[in-house]
Prior knowledge:
Two copies of one chain form a homodimer.
Chain A: E1 2-6, H1 15-24, E2 33-38, H2 40-49, E3 57-61, H3 72-78, H4 83-92, E4 98-101, H5 105-115, E5 126-133, E6 136-141, H6 151-167, E7 175-179, H7 190-200, E8 206-211, E9 223-225, H8 228-256, H9 258-274, E10 283-286, E11 291-294, H10 301-316, H11 319-336
Parallel strand pairs in A: 1-2, 1-4, 2-3, 4-11, 6-9, 7-8, 7-9
Antiparallel strand pairs in A: 5-6, 5-10, 10-11
Helix pairs in contact in A: 1-10, 3-5, 4-5, 6-7, 6-11, 8-9
Amino acid sequence: MRIALDAMGGDHAPRETIRGAQAGLKHLSDGDQLVLFGPEDVVRGQCSEIGLDDPRIEIVHCSEVIDMHDSPVEALRQKRDSTIARLAQQAGKGEVDAIISAGNTGAFVAACQLRLRPIKGVSRPGIAVVLPSFHGPVVVCDVGANVTPKSHHLHEYARMAALYSQYILHVEKPRVGLVSIGEEDAKGNTLVKEARQMIKGDPAVEFVGNMEGRDIFAGNADVYICDGFVGNVVLKLTEGLAEGLFRTIISEIKAENEDLAEAFAPIVDRIWKKHDFAEYGGAPLLGVNTIAIICHGRSDARAISNAIRVAEEYDHANLNQVIAQRLALHQDEKESA
Amino acid sequence: MRIALDAMGGDHAPRETIRGAQAGLKHLSDGDQLVLFGPEDVVRGQCSEIGLDDPRIEIVHCSEVIDMHDSPVEALRQKRDSTIARLAQQAGKGEVDAIISAGNTGAFVAACQLRLRPIKGVSRPGIAVVLPSFHGPVVVCDVGANVTPKSHHLHEYARMAALYSQYILHVEKPRVGLVSIGEEDAKGNTLVKEARQMIKGDPAVEFVGNMEGRDIFAGNADVYICDGFVGNVVLKLTEGLAEGLFRTIISEIKAENEDLAEAFAPIVDRIWKKHDFAEYGGAPLLGVNTIAIICHGRSDARAISNAIRVAEEYDHANLNQVIAQRLALHQDEKESA
């Protein structure tokens, strides 16, 4: 397979993206290519700086970069030779099998929606993120691709995200929950109530009911479905709160006793590593007809390397084909209903 | 003033509510009464068990209790002599000035909406909760009273919650943020975009822009406005994640070194206390024509006592009158527009 990587995407690009590419080579099979998108001189310079010289590496020259703060749609219109625009374009033409970027998420999603067909049976793609809960990784979908979804979009997310959990995180029978504000059928807004009926009635989904905010980290489901607005707030609140809590704990320990702080440091490190988003290699945009992996803006080389691993696993599992089959089943039901 | 307390509300009632009443007496002014609602024999029994015998305590007999798992509307219809139904009824008649319950939140809100007039100028009441951020307490409104608000409801919440922050938390000029998924005007759903224009254009509100999930604990605003669905997820995710993180850290430390765990215990206690919801005495239902305080289901005596303190402060600040004046200003603007 050919995996395309946005060499210029993210806060630590191109240094960490290229180092991530180097580290990610170990995940490639024979005959695979890793294609770096970016200004050729910059990419070559970084490669030679870290001694990255491998026949599986290719470079596709792009003269522009979409900034983190650029308006997605505007930027795509104006920067036609940007790494993100070119990634989606090449994926649309089938010239690459997977695209990975830690750059402007909005632009990446918009480019995918513009240049790529959806998988048959999918109305709107959704971003599935893996959160490291205390009971193992859980999938939350959508976290921002679709802020005003219809209920059947949530139903599609339930099916797709469950397959992602099963095929990539190897959860045998993923339990799917719907994020709401109470357990009962009557709780929630109209969107959630409608989606609940659809998902509940779907024999292809192991639905375990409505889930409240506090369930997400309590191990009560493996997959949490919500609209992109709620999911985005969940994702960012989780990051902010976890970081803030660790900082608070460390500063309280230091205030108490410097020696204790030293003894505590490796434990904090271990907990961080166990619950590190970088471990899960980015968030797939489920439902588009390629393997599209969105990495965190703060991705380091390890996160990029893991995203390459996930792209390989996604490809080996033939996940998009599995999704198409599962969604076709869905389509048949709708048509026979 | 007469403060009415649901003696039967919450996971630890009536023991902790009555103990909370006892502790809360210290917040009462001369001539105030604290009225306990519940089955008279149960309430009297608890009072005598802890030696609570004070002329400021009264009892209002109610024969029924709405359970945590009862459907709010159903329960209110069937249990007309329940503590929650009677609290709202008496507040509606002006027989008490404040009502406090740690019981079924949905039933409490529904009872208030049924039995109490809104403050003039308020279309829908909203629950304002105080979250202990790392930079001091912040207010989030709404957290569940109104799951499908209109944009002008969010505007009203912005005004009311800012006044709550100012008058009760003593933040001099509360910075108000709108929970969204990006800073820009164009980010968010229709509700947020519309509300943003209203709040931004309101000289009575110190609007500091859209806030993402990660801003909530980062000290970037003092008041966060959102719909009741999002707010409820934020509140419960925060509780679940914070508790889970502490549990994880403690178990990791124990696995490493039992002595270290012992040294760490008082630090955890201190952080917990600093960031304890019980400190802030419950969440007011802003916009109804009484002082209505919703306590956490897990409230202990300290939380109940703090709720009594907040009811007193709320009354002294004449907050509902301040809200009415501020909202009347709003009304005038709308009419002259």
